[in-house]
Amino acid sequence: MWDSDQGFEVRIKQAPTGRAAVAFAANAYRYARVACTLWDQGIYAETVPLARTCFESAVLAAWVQQSDTAVVNALLHETFRNDYNLMQQLKKAAVPIPTEIEARVTELRKSVVKPAPDISVQKMEDMCQSFHGNSQLYLIFRVLSGGSHALDALRRCPR
């Protein structure tokens, strides 16, 4: 279905939640395709960061689908907040930011209301806890995360 490019219809009560769930599912699919391509070529260790992103996107898709619009808005708020903070750091480092990009990033940051304090969108462990089999989900994420860092090269380095 993803590759057919014919589109599809999803009937949901809350369009923002459905759009976010589809976006995360599509992201998981794209990363999985690349990881499988590399795996088929015998490139294994390098697939782990891709598998981690695929897994995280799949968890987010399921988590968002069982949530409400407030969660989608919290995710958007976190994304736009991070973009704005990065832009500020770039400016401090004297990296020129085009005026239209600065205006857009600033506009997006202001466009979504700050979430209520009880809505956590930063911790994968909290998201995994909301599912049946939650401890296994989070352990899979931790294993994939461990194999996604540059330090993992030390495990593969001959002595």
General shape: globular
Poorly predicted runs: none
Strand content: under 5%
Helical stretch tally:
7
What's the total count of β strands? 0
Mean pLDDT: 87
The chain-level structural class is mainly alpha
Task: Please state the CA-atom Rg, rounded to the nearest Å.
Answer: 18 Å
| SSE string | HHHHHHH
Keyword list:
about 0% strand; single chain; mainly alpha; about 160 residues; DUF5677; 7 helices
Describe this structure in words.
The protein is built from seven helices and no strands. The chain is mainly α. Helix 1 runs antiparallel to helix 2 and helix 3 packs antiparallel against helix 4. The longest helix is centred in the N-terminal third of the chain and has 26 residues. The termini are far apart.
Q: What's the gist of this structure?
A:
Pfam families: DUF5677. The chain is an all-alpha fold and 159 residues long.
How are the secondary structure elements laid out?
Blueprint: H1 15-40, H2 48-65, H3 69-92, H4 99-111, H5 124-129, H6 134-146, H7 153-156
Helix pairs in contact: 1-2, 3-4
